[in-house]
């Protein structure tokens, strides 16, 4: 269908549209018109992605003179593929209506691991080893060697690509990663470098968060994107954590030992070069005198992750004199590693600000802030000079230099925390130096500054006023949309009491109470005998899950549960969890029924959907607060209070509730689906906790369901399941339309009552 | 009054929400026994009429709308071929879940609904056969073999049954599959299970069993007592059956009875085939003879098989001696309407008629009652598209549900030779009642 939003004709590839999709587009259009940032919350399963894509592409089609580019950031490769599949459908629809004038280029960009088609390279396992293997074949000096000596191996795909040079272009269309590979194989071009080249010309680029947020990657990939781009962060409820992780480094003993090994290997290399080719080192020295601005002239294959700090700060200055010579730089690094080793010896937990830390480095080993700041680039330059291609071996020293550069660049928003052992396992010595970033706005600031419109969207962004404060920006539009439903297909419940009417909670002083453990067990037991197919349980942490499952096992509750359904458990091991999930799905398919025990903030809670019969019920045992005694969290809370005036309690509750919402949101993935959600903790009935849940859950949380005990919940569950199993009318009854056709929309617009439909 | 009215009309969303919340809060405080009545607050729908007598709100129109929706969605409105000789196995789930008390008095006690279903089934499918199976302790057992008489099944069902163990859908399917394999190809193989467990405990891969059933053309339907289970849905989708979940006691009965009319014929079996059938004569009163089915001497009543002269007690049945299917002609006639359903009447709204300047009819053609509501306001009524006679809503339901003839069209038939055309079509439709052994022919 196609319709008009103000002056823009929107092409929408489906015959019907949900009212909330329409209002989403209207809000988004306002943000684009205002050239500002937007913060939009819309529940999952309402077609957020297609609404976004179709509005933005239609918007750029309506402005043929200067079409804005769309940079779409997803969290996982799987989501990237899904987005591109939607986009392909949209694109073919637009082309069928408009002809070739609607043609544009859209592609996905991912790491070498996902794009490489050279069989000898892609067979290695990890991402870093694929990168290194690629460099071994494509680095400029390797290729130069290969010119003289035909025995030196190179990558034929890259050679072919390089031969065509800038002639190599993708015809317009939508390319998923698989399509890029197929295209690459057909032409014999390297898909990775082709994609990186085409990113400059593409109208839509779908890639991972890191390409924009991590300064190391962003400087290479996203540097040349024009200002008129629209940046979208999808599923962005955890964007502050991503930002923080991008600027945090932790150093362990293994890292330091590895770094020492790397340093001695580099020293050998330097000696070798001195004997054979002293001119190279000399040339490097001269280049460094001129400053680091040479970066842009490097051939594309030689670039690698650039400076972890903000790009602008570094390039203007020249490398300080005392680390220009390779030997001097190495000895500086050696001293730094030695110093860090010394700090790791500590017996007690230490917490330091960056200024004090830098001062202590200066007094003890004589390395000043400026030298620290240039570590990363200097190392990069040195490794190029030494022609080191197996970069995966040198990760340790890179981590150290990364650390040093961050320490040297920032003075605020960070702290150094040294812990001799993990709080939860005090017997095992595992010393670690953590450089923790507390300020999510640091990493995302360049994105907000550089691009005119940044859209942050997710199914759960509540409370929506906190994100602008955390990320330190001013959205022109911030809106939370509700879901229009033909029937009440979600049934959230707050369970405060067990079957014996005593309160249940995972509060610290109550969680090990046998009564609470038993009540939780009885709750699950009653539920599994009522709910068919799949039930998902979320616990607050691995240790709590282990404890409670153990005591259920001892009291025999677990055995009774297993009478009803098979039990699967998430573990920190990815392979084991995948296997468990697979078997869980099979048990649901064949009617045996299954329970999945999972952990809030775990991998399952973030990325796995339990739609339709895979998740008829999700039980959230307790409120998933972060581990509040963690030093990193405490330091961050302190920083938030001082800098942004966000109270500790507010932030913790916000964080816990968004995790809980994320967990329970796993069960409902479309409007035809239905599912129940039980929040099993008495604290959820308090208004300050509950009100932080997203609106689409709150609007279905009836007052009668706020203070339930187990038997009442079972009764409600029975009735709900029966009601939902009845056939229903998908388009919505007479009263409120939940599916609009083109005529409906036009009628609404002519009548001018469009506002009634919007919330 | 005035102010409150204005408030209502001006009232924004907040206010309305407040009202709703209040209601919901009240709903939440209800006791469990009260909740059963929360949906139909019949006392609230009372209203006084002119003479200040209480009378219930006229919800006839609402019921009628529901009924029409059902009749429109059911395939019986189209003239499709029906499988007239179903062989049905009813499987009753007697696992521990069946002893739940959420249906009053308990799920198991609802088996009296099955009794009503069995009677209805034989009423609608006089030549159908039915057998009972139950599942408990993870195994399926046969309660009664396929048979044509309702009484023996009902007797077996009324016996003492106890719930225990798990339910296994696969075992039930396999057992029924084995039984139904032997059914002749003109018969329609049907499987209906009353399922109350929330899961199934199967020995092997149930997907294979489902494929087997699909291959053997067994149409599987499930009536659930608890909640929707994926595997049951899958089973019904694969084999073309119906899947429904009962909300309460009366809904369960309704759902069960939906399975009584003959199912649509499967395309592979649409070829006409001949079935031998006998139409026995009723024996004279006062004659003492030994009935062949019960092996007891009986006085009067009973029927005599036209081929072997054996005495049977009731129809329809199969002769115990020569195996001939014995029916009476009303039985055949009763299945006739499944082939030629009465066309759906169209709704007529009085306002539409008045715009067309047509005379508004006063009386229903069926019952001759006035079509006008009390207060002489014209109500909703329907018209037959063929004979354009008007009927009231009650008659509409009666004509489509029980009578299966349109009185208007029937009275027209005397003047026009519609009947012949109908009969010709009947023969040409390739249905399974192609011939019948008349008593005299069989005697020769």
TrEMBL record, chain A:
Chief location of this protein within or outside the cell: nucleus
Listed cofactors: [4Fe-4S] cluster
SUPFAM superfamilies xref list: P-loop containing nucleoside triphosphate hydrolases
Highest taxon above the source species: Eukaryota
UniProt record, GO biological process: nucleotide-excision repair; positive regulation of mitotic recombination; transcription by RNA polymerase II
Transmembrane segments: none
Keyword 4Fe-4S attributed: yes
NCBIfam families documented for this protein: rad3
Statement: the UniProt record of this protein carries the keyword Iron-sulfur: yes
Catalytic reaction annotation: ATP + H2O = ADP + phosphate + H(+)
Protein name: DNA 5'-3' helicase
The entry's keywords: 4Fe-4S, ATP-binding, DNA damage, DNA repair, DNA-binding, Helicase, Hydrolase, Iron, Iron-sulfur, Isomerase, Metal-binding, Nucleotide-binding, Nucleus, Transcription, Transcription regulation
Ranges of residues in domain Helicase ATP-binding: 7-285
Enzyme class at the top of the EC tree: isomerase
EC number: 5.6.2.3
Location(s) in or outside the cell: Nucleus
Naturally occurring in which organism (per UniProt): Dillenia turbinata
Similarity annotation: Belongs to the helicase family. RAD3/XPD subfamily.
GO CC annotations on file: nucleus
Short name of one Pfam family: Helicase_C_2
MF-aspect GO terms: 4 iron, 4 sulfur cluster binding; 5'-3' DNA helicase activity; ATP binding; damaged DNA binding; hydrolase activity, acting on acid anhydrides, in phosphorus-containing anhydrides; metal ion binding
From TrEMBL, chain B:
GO biological process: DNA-templated transcription; nucleotide-excision repair; regulation of transcription by RNA polymerase II
Region (Disordered): 1-27
Keywords: DNA damage, DNA repair, Metal-binding, Nucleus, Transcription, Transcription regulation, Zinc, Zinc-finger
CDD domains xref list: vWA_transcription_factor_IIH_type
Biased composition range(s): Acidic residues: 12-25
Domain VWFA: 87-274
Annotated localization: Nucleus
Stated name of the protein: General transcription factor IIH subunit 2
Native organism: Dillenia turbinata
Lineage of source species: Eukaryota, Viridiplantae, Streptophyta, Embryophyta, Tracheophyta
